[in-house]
């Protein structure tokens, strides 16, 4: 009676009670794994027919020598978990396999059996002739969850992680750039009765989604390369205190103006570019200095030191002369203009006009009247309008000539008119 509950392979009559493969197209066709893998055909059964696995989930896929006693059901859950959660998320995979497995056990079993075991050696050989370099996995691992170079997690505290919504194990944020990008593909499904136009539309949606992911990753790389996260958190204040003292205000302003180029250059490239601009500015200033020496007849660098010393002395003399002139001007205001400073229109005169009126013994009001008439006649003559000069009777030829000469030298009227 005990044999009535057993199942046998219809091809080799082996005991398949623990594990058998049943044909979904032919009734009562159940094969052992060896006959199924060999493609056995019996009666109307063909090797391409559909099949399903029938077992209690208690046998070991790797044999009795495998460590841990992993059953076939746990193996299947492990493969489903790594497809769903990705390589490296051992905690989520352990929860998917079952409470009896820890993340460490899941990691060791998968790495031992599926990567470094016989299956991994058969699928991932060490040396392959003419093998193309896999740039999507720079760390050398056989499975990489990302199409880009993985970046190390940010070195920030737990409070700062909560402030940013940052997940260090995934190197993601709770709110990413273009947060609604996943809506492009969330409703897509593959149907065998889709027309060509519908398939192309779905491919376009996938392409748009991939571009958004690349842009998201590009922004992350820029933020990481230029160290923008510490700036956002306020850590850059200490760095500003340690900033080089030789940086001028113009260089800081130029760096701000060139900030838009950061998204097209790496940080090292941008620093080299800015350094080259600074070198160019220094070279241009040196060229202008050498051209100035050449215009002043200096052809050797040894002569430039003597020229600079002489120029410094000249500028010093001019500075001392201007100081003396300003002192004399202040003294003149106290005593020289005493005769006209209380008259009407004195505050409307410039310093030179005050000296002129004082020397001509002419009141400011009369001078302003004569100045207005002369300038008005000058403008009419330039416009081709005939004008008769009606100067006041108190203005003689000497006064008129002195005033005309002063206005001409000051640029109020042209020389040909005067």
UniProtKB/TrEMBL annotation:
GO biological process: chromatin remodeling; regulation of transcription by RNA polymerase II
GO cellular component: nucleus; SAGA-type complex
Main location: nucleus
Domain SANT: 65-118
Highest taxon, organism lineage: Eukaryota
Domain ZZ-type: 4-59
Record GO terms (molecular function): chromatin binding; transcription coactivator activity; zinc ion binding
Keywords from the UniProt entry: Metal-binding, Nucleus, Transcription, Transcription regulation, Zinc, Zinc-finger
Xref: Pfam families: Myb_DNA-binding, TADA2A-like_3rd, Tri-helical_Ada2b_C, ZZ_ADA2
The UniProt record lists the keyword Glycosyltransferase: no
Subcellular compartments: Nucleus
Annotated InterPro entries: ADA2-like_ZZ (IPR041983), Ada2/TADA2 (IPR016827), Ada2b_C (IPR056267), Homeodomain-like_sf (IPR009057), SANT/Myb (IPR001005), SANT_dom (IPR017884), TADA2A_B-like_dom (IPR055141), WH-like_DNA-bd_sf (IPR036388)
Gene3D superfamilies, A to Z: 3.30.60.90, Homeodomain-like, Winged helix-like DNA-binding domain superfamily/Winged helix DNA-binding domain
Name of the protein in its database record: Transcriptional adapter
All copies of domain Myb-like, residue ranges: 67-114
Cited PROSITE patterns: MYB_LIKE, SANT, ZF_ZZ_1, ZF_ZZ_2
